[in-house]
Design brief:
The chain is an alpha+beta fold. It folds into 2 domains: 196 residues, Hypothetical Protein Pfu-838710-001, CATH 2.40.320.10; 311 residues, CHAD domain (Alpha solenoid), CATH 1.40.20. Helix content is 56%, strand content 15%. It contains 17 helices and 10 strands. Strand 7 and strand 8 form a beta hairpin. Helix 6 packs antiparallel against helix 7, helix 6 runs antiparallel to helix 12 and helix 8 packs antiparallel against helix 11. The longest helix has 42 residues.
Length: 532
């Protein structure tokens, strides 16, 4: 963004700035509506790569949705392109260097609007004595900013100046900056969109896509649990339509994580929230989670296909194209079924049921003895009790695992571990002090290491089963399966069997490594911090 600077000042009126620009020799133009959107993937791949994709509505014959796209950042094409509609994937971009560079950053992920910006924009131009342009100013007033959820964000002050260097004459631009600073304006880093995202508290990095609610250890547990569960309901709602439209696997993944995390909190909410609310909410979330499993398994297998077949020779990989094509069709079919189910469930009705259960309070208007036992206890102490209980249950289950334990038992152990992890992460703001945060991270590092090994084992087992189903389907197709494809699948099956043995051995070793004094000390320190 070389040659652009941004200035803003809360106490200065835009009219005062315009008068000063006239004295500096700027030619003023009329104010016109201005609109631009920042596009990125759900996990902010462009911003994290040091780029930004801006989309500005423009006129194009026979198109009501045409936009001009421009990528900002180093080592990306600076020349804008115009497309007939807002792009969702790389395939919606015109062929050429623009699509190649952006596609390398996106890697087939879907694009969405992360922030929209609208204003009334007045342009001003400063010319040299010979008539050559030296500087250009955009004065944005009446600024309106919406975040990725479409919520309007407050921007104060609601005006800003963007100063552009035109040509290579820097001195006039510096003179303009000095005069505007003398008026009380501050020079800011970045352009007007950076300013707007900062003032409107819109996160473009993807690191805080769904922010945790605020909470304190001494608050009543019922208040904190409800706040957390409402936040997970918001995340489920935000991911719902993207899953229905199959825009990006990230939406389904995010939906499933929110469901699993929410279920972990509901289980821990017994004796904090009404028992019937906990039971009904677990049924509600469990039914939806069960529907999402098949599509997610196929998403992961499609994403990891190249890794799985990398052990084969290039010739063998070519013979597996029929299997991959069938896999892609199976994935599309699974998502079509899931989409239809989500439409039938109706997002708003489902969320209304979730929120009603979160807010259900049978003790309203009754004496304190009617409230759940732990509803009024300190949240930190309640969460500490739940973490200690879940940890002990995980360790007890881990100690039953041996070299001959069936793989499904290891999968169940992983579920226990993930419930514990989600519980600790859901209430992370209770341990946000520097010392408490380090204790939490130290404990989670050990838990995640265990879950990582168990997850690799489960992935191999699930993907092996999915490959077996692909083989069966190919065998029953008209004309059967080509012998070369069958041979490649046989070779892959041997690889999966070997990997399963290796992953199983690593998982058993990880279980033994988790059940050590260092983990117990980390858990004890975390629990002590929660109880303070």
């Amino acid at each position: 963004m070389t040659g652009i600077s941004c200035l803003s000042g809360g106490a200065v009126e835009p009219a005062t700035v315009l008068d000063e620009l006239v004295r500096l020799g700027f030619e003023l133009g009329p104010s016109e509506p201005y609109q631009v959107m920042v596009l990125d993937t759900p996990d902010a791949r462009l911003v994290r790569a040091g780029a930004r994709l801006d989309a500005r509505p423009v006129y194009q014959p026979n198109s009501a949705d045409a936009v001009e796209l421009r990528v900002r950042g180093d080592a990306v094409p600076d020349r804008p392109v115009v497309v007939s509609r807002l792009p969702r994937t790389t395939r919606d971009l015109p062929a050429g260097r623009f699509r190649t560079v952006v596609g390398d950053l996106l890697r087939e992920r879907a694009l969405g609007v992360r922030m929209s910006f609208a204003s009334s924009c007045a342009h001003a131009l400063l010319r040299a004595a010979d008539g050559a342009p030296q500087a250009r100013i955009e004065l944005h007033t009446e600024v309106v900013v919406h975040d990725e959820r479409g919520r309007r964000r407050e921007v104060a002050p609601d005006w800003c100046i963007e100063l552009h260097l035109v040509g290579d004459r820097i001195k006039p631009v510096r003179r303009v900056q000095r005069r505007l600073r003398d008026l009380g304006l501050a020079v800011l880093a970045g352009d007007v969109l950076v300013w707007a995202s900062d003032r409107g508290d819109v996160d473009l990095t993807g690191r805080q896509r769904h922010r945790r609610p605020t909470m304190r250890r001494r608050e009543p547990a019922a208040d904190v649990f409800r706040r957390v569960l409402h936040a997970y309901g918001d995340t489920i709602g935000d991911s719902w339509q993207g899953t229905v439209d199959d825009l990006d696997p990230e939406y389904l993944h995010e939906l499933r994580v929110a469901l699993r995390s929410g279920r972990s909190v509901w289980r821990a909410a017994r004796d904090v929230l009404p028992a019937e609310a906990c039971d009904d909410a677990l049924d509600l979330a469990g039914a939806l989670a069960d529907r999402t499993g098949p599509a997610r398994d196929l998403d992961v297998l499609v994403a990891r296909w190249d890794d799985h077949v990398a052990v084969l020779t290039p010739e063998r990989r070519v013979t597996l194209e029929p299997a991959r094509d069938l896999l892609v069709r199976r994935r599309a079919d699974a998502h079509a079924v899931l989409s239809a189910q989500l439409v039938d469930l109706d997002r708003d009705q489902w969320l209304a049921s979730w929120r009603r259960l979160v807010d259900l309070d049978r003790s309203a208007g009754l004496d304190a003895a009617s409230a759940p036992r732990d509803a009024g206890r300190r949240a930190g102490r309640v969460v500490a009790d739940r973490v200690r209980r879940e940890h002990r249950g995980l360790v007890r289950a881990a100690r039953t695992i041996g070299d001959d334990t069936p793989v499904p038992a290891l999968h169940e152990l992983r579920k226990d571990g993930k419930r514990l992890r989600y519980l600790v992460e859901a209430f992370a703001p209770l341990t946000d002090g520097r010392r408490a945060r380090e204790h939490r991270r130290r404990y989670l590092r050990r838990l995640k290491r265990l879950l990582g090994h168990l997850g690799e084992l489960q992935d191999v087992d699930v993907h092996r089963q999915l490959f077996d189903r692909l083989r069966e389907d190919l065998e029953h197709q008209p004309g059967g399966m080509h012998p070369a494809t069958a041979a490649a699948l046989d070779e892959l099956r041997v690889v999966f069997d070997d990997q399963l043995v290796e992953r199983r051995r690593a998982a058993v070793e990880a279980i033994a490594a988790f059940d050590r004094g260092s983990t117990r000390r980390a858990r004890r320190a975390l629990v002590d911090e929660l109880r303070r």
